[in-house]
Amino acid sequence: MTVFFPITTPKRYIAAVLVTIICLHYLFTITSDGSGRTSPFSNISERTGERHSNDALSIPDYNNLQSYPNITGPRANATFVLLARNSDLVGVINSMQSAEDRFNRYYNYPWVLLNEEPFTDEFKERVSVLTRAPIYFGLIPKEHWFQPDWIDEDRARAGRQKMMAQRIIYGGSVPYRNMCRFNSGFFFQHELLQPYRYYWRVEPDVRFFCDLDYDPFLYMQEHDKVYSFTISLFEWEPTIPTLWKTVKDFIAEYPQYVENHNAMDFLSNDGGKTYNLCHFWSNFEIADMNFWRGEAYSAFFEYLETKGGFYYERWGDAPVHSIAAALFARRDQIHFFRDIGYRHEPFQHCPSGEQWTKGRCSCDQKDTFDYTQNSCLKKFEKLFA
Ligand SMILES: Nc1nc2c(ncn2[C@@H]2O[C@H](COP(=O)(O)OP(=O)(O)O)[C@@H](O)[C@H]2O)c(=O)[nH]1
Ligand SMILES: [Mg+2]
Predict the structure, then answer these.
(1) What is the mean predicted confidence (pLDDT) over 145-150?
(2) Ligand 2: distance of its center to the CA of 91 in Å?
(3) 205 lines ligand 1 (CB under 6 A)
(4) Domain over 74-382 is classified CATH 3.90.550.10
(5) Structural domain boundaries of the chain?
(6) Rounded mean pLDDT of 255-282?
(7) Are 273 and 267 in contact (CB under 8 A)?
(8) 285 included as an active-site residue
(9) CB of 239 shorter than 6 A to ligand 1
């Protein structure tokens, strides 16, 4: 005879269903963290279904600055710098959002935005909401921006036309040349930047891929660094046909400014005779403005300026800054921020391994400029081999 529960009996049926529901509920409460995700690591209070009012404290309170340890620690005298036009608004928002999300919402370093035209109210309003840090909008003095009167415009025009014929990017653009000259010799003289020593340059439409859990400005200060980069590459030679000769003339005239432990071997494969076109990509820079404001760089920029190459050719601030940092600073004062994931079209630097995991980087480790054919990183690393 087969023994079986006569589940057709209504009372017994209800009891069985109830027991099943209670068992299922118990199973659910011991395996759930309450947010819908099951986790074997749920804490005791969650296992028992209790909820404490301070449970939320396990989520960092970003609105309470005191709760973030670095805020109370030492800070550098530093700021972000962003040069932009009103028409760059969307790109500026993208870049600032990225820098704030990945770093500055914890540190609240100020932002200084510069333009040769007044920023519109809409521009100011849209970017001001992106940060809780102080934000300043500055107008660039005319003499720091526009082509000086002593430049021979016929010669400058001929230079532009030649470059346009060679299809060189921005070859025919005067505003681009204004920008390169301003970034080379004037931004650090702007009155809004006078209070600061270190700056982090940001451009529209760049991206920071990784969390940064330390202060790179303090890193610069504590390790006596003056210049840093994430990407280095070769310059487009037709934009600087006479720059290296000018540099060599300057060195011959002012040998006292050349640092003994310099990075000439990053710039030249033959001890300085010729320029190998390596430079640091200056759309990302964290650097010490005291270096630009110092005697060596001031003399250097003045020398370049008198040659007119910012307008007769198209000298970029990247080779100008790079050459100066490589020659007038010690090579160990130049730093490669390997852990800062960064993109400016069309290249990016993506950290790898532990740095990638720790930084919660959103970039593809395989997509990094570091050791590609057009990168100068190997040359930089060889300086220290
Ligand atoms: N205010 C202002 N900013 C400019 C001008 N031209 C370029 N910039 C800024 O200078 C930086 C470099 O210019 P960008 O167009 O990004 O050049 P690229 O990165 O070399 O292609 C960016 O921060 C631009 O917003 C200009 O005419 N006026
Ligand atoms: Mg750019």
Answers:
(1) 98
(2) 10
(3) no
(4) yes
(5) 1-52, 74-382
(6) 98
(7) no
(8) yes
(9) no
